[in-house]
């Protein structure tokens, strides 16, 4: 896999958030398409402008856009990682299903999870 792509009202603005959150450099940068990739290789994250973007609903609701995918990001310290993500523009979800995972929304509403790996768990 080369990348996972997230739609957004403005590809560059959402890429700015994830570039800061992940620390990944830009592999390409056009007005409506941005690609980030980890320095050590591997699959990246792309962003495309979608003027009709509608943020997904999480937890799901039958009458709204369903979450089709979400990112799981492993961190060393959950509390500081959540604080940093919020400082960058994320918001915490009201519903948190697990103690060692925090569900957040990026600036345009895509849910993503920050988690700490536990013995035999996540």
UniProtKB/TrEMBL annotation:
Residues 1-122 form the VOC domain. Coiled coil: none annotated. Transmembrane segments: none annotated. InterPro entries: Glyas_Bleomycin-R_OHBP_Dase (IPR029068), Glyoxalase_6 (IPR041581), VOC_core (IPR037523). It comes from the Bacteria. It holds the Pfam family Glyoxalase_6. This is VOC family protein.
């Amino acid at each position: 896999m080369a990348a996972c792509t997230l739609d957004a009202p403005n590809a560059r603005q959402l890429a700015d958030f994830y570039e800061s959150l992940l620390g990944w450099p830009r592999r390409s940068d056009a007005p409506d398409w941005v690609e980030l990739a980890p320095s050590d290789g591997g699959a990246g994250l792309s962003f495309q402008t979608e003027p009709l973007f509608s943020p997904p609903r999480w937890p799901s609701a039958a009458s709204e856009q369903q979450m089709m995918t979400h990112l799981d990001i492993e961190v060393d310290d959950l509390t500081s990682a959540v604080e940093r993500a919020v400082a960058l523009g994320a918001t915490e979800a009201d519903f948190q299903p697990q103690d060692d995972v925090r569900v957040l929304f990026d600036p345009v509403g895509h849910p993503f999870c920050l988690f700490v790996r536990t013995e035999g768990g996540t």
